[in-house]
Amino acid sequence: MLRSRTKLIELGKRQLCRSMCKSSELTLVEVDDKTGIATLTMNKPPVNSCNLEFLRALKSAMKEIESNKCSGIILTSSNDKVFSSGLDLNELRQPNPERLATFWKELQEMWVTLYLSNVPTAAAINGHALAVGCVMAAACEYRVMLPDFTIGIHATKFGYVVPPFIVNTYLSVLPHPVVERALLQGKIFSTQEALQINLIDEVVNSKDEALCKCADFIGSFEQTNPVARALTKRQLRAPFAKQLLEDPETELRESLEYINTPLFQESLDQYLLQLKKKNKK
Ligand SMILES: CCCC/C=C\CC(=O)SCCNC(=O)CCNC(=O)[C@H](O)C(C)(C)COP(=O)(O)OP(=O)(O)OC[C@H]1O[C@@H](n2cnc3c(N)ncnc32)[C@H](O)[C@@H]1OP(=O)(O)O
Known about the structure:
Elements: H1 2-15, E1 27-31, E2 37-42, H2 52-67, E3 72-77, E4 82-84, H3 97-115, E5 121-125, E6 128-130, H4 132-139, E7 142-145, E8 150-152, H5 164-171, H6 176-185, E9 188-190, H7 191-196, E10 202-203, H8 207-219, H9 226-246, H10 248-259, H11 262-280
Bound molecules: ligand LRBWVUCK.
Residues 46-47, 49, 81-82, 85-90, 128, 130-132, 153, 155, 160, 162-163, 166, 275-276, 279 line the site of ligand LRBWVUCK.
């Protein structure tokens, strides 16, 4: 066991090379030649809401970055007001059963890819990060955020029962009583409030500063062995991902059943109406 682990570590050292990654329209990936850090920019106008295609693009961008042996991932947005508005609510409204199942599987896979990524992950939160937008940021190892934005998981406000893997993402970052209150209230935090509860690590004044802080964070692992780091991270995070890794079908079935209930569909209709009304004012 020890010998195979040592072998893996040596292999990891040798394989740490740098290369450019491809981008899709929905995601832009730039790799810094010197540091090997990949900046993954979410680019789905208008507000980076996650539909099936976007979840797929995010997952494959992350996998590609990992397979190119980059030294870390910085997740950010091309929109200077919105990091991500979470799941595309249109995917949940009166859904086509097949598409909904595919969509939900992509959500699960994107989450596992990010949460258990082998490389250091950091979120440069340069806009609002709501619901799954917040989940993506919280799944990273480090977060910095610009002032005057909001972040949180407000699913209970539009009738969604928060699934265990989402609860676990919060629990990786926040203490249990804080998670309980935040999720039950559907609390959305301001940047300052998020700093106070340690949902984010630092407040920064510009996107450039955010990217620099994230790069410094990733650079702080320069002296560690990437494979030892990755295996240790996996060990620490595995208990939170266990349920989803071992039995994704049950989570899928429960989510699909719930999304199709009249209770959730009615609640979602009302919420979408409010969202549209806000824009007509
Ligand atoms: C795993 C499940 C459990 C976890 C819980 C939930 C899963 C989710 O992620 S559900 C997603 C919940 N997200 C939201 O409720 C965000 C709602 N959006 C907003 O509050 C604002 O749009 C936001 C603050 C992000 C940005 O504000 P603005 O910059 O003012 O933009 P607009 O509000 O004008 O939005 C532009 C356009 O996009 C539509 N929109 C916004 N968010 C979504 C979304 N999540 N899904 C679908 N569509 C969205 C919005 O209605 C506008 O549309 P138009 O009026 O047609 O222009």
